[in-house]
């Protein structure tokens, strides 16, 4: 660490949002293969609040051994300000965004963050930094499921469960890009106009609609919520792609001839992110921001996340 400082939000103890404190800390310096980014906006994601709570929802043996004080946050959008040794693909002044070092530790809730050069992509020209910071983790999760893990196996009719959330709203659009003919978005009632506006063919309010009425014989259930509620809606020979660990009743799925894909974790990838950015810049994928908070109010952003029912992403404005 050098002597320069910056503002950042640090988690001082695992627990409630109030443990996130805005303060002055040392500014990081880029190491070999890394760049220093002046962060303009930082996205807020479920792993951030899992970390804040000390990963209490993880099995003990899977809990990362992190010790506060910690700067959380893996989604950033900003401007390259310095290059570490060996970096040739970026120059100071480049506008970039990225999912930094995931799975692993990153420190995006700050005025400056270092990132491996390969985890960044040019910021979409059609987005400001606030919207761009909403993209990386959720967008890459959906993108990698659709174009890598399920490549060529999307089918014609797709249910996206949790369709209004961070991952869900990208997934609902990307399955269409990948060729789905009918996209059914499942979410709570207030998201109807939002999801129809994103191009889903049918909106289903899970708070009012019994599971058996959602749809029959779909090719794919892309599930960001978890559980086996929509298992019978998948056709024999169809598949479930779980974005989260959940009980998908594997024996029952096997009886019904439904394949349950392995749950896959999103990975940092500047090249995948560039592919997604191209879809955004050509207008084929839109980005939804649920709410924006100043960096110093990261605790309020986490409190918003705790209330759930997100429509798109929560973003921290680092310049405000
Ligand atoms: N595999 C990976 O690498 C990966 C990557 C990112 C995230 N994830 C996981 O994926 C999950 C979703 O992440 P996210 O960022 O999209 O979260 P999010 O933005 O909080 O979205 C969750 C959405 O689910 C909806 N929902 C809640 N209960 C529902 C139900 N019973 N039926 C249908 N929709 C329901 C919520 O709104 P409404 O209830 O109002 O509809 C909300 O829009 C999280 O568990 C996260 O940990 C996994």
- The counted number of beta strands is 16
What integer value in Å does the Rg equal? 20 Å
Q: Remind me, CATH topology of the largest domain?
A: Quinone Oxidoreductase, Chain A, domain 1
Mean pLDDT: 97
Q: What's the quaternary structure here?
A: single chain
Overall CATH class of the largest domain: Alpha Beta
Major pleated sheet: 7 strands, mixed
Order of SSEs, N→C?
EEEHEEEEEHHEHEHEEEHEHEHE
Question: Per CATH, which architecture of the largest domain?
Answer: Alpha-Beta Complex
Q: Cα distance, first to last residue?
A: 26 Å
Assign an overall shape.
globular
Helix content: 10-25%
What share of the residues does DSSP label as strand, in percent? 25-35%
What structural category arises from helix and sheet content?
Answer: alpha/beta
Number of domain units: 2
List keywords for this structure.
320 residues; alpha/beta; Quinone Oxidoreductase, Chain A, domain 1; Rossmann fold; seven-stranded mixed beta sheet; 16 strands; 22% helix; globular; binds NADP nicotinamide-adenine-dinucleotide phosphate
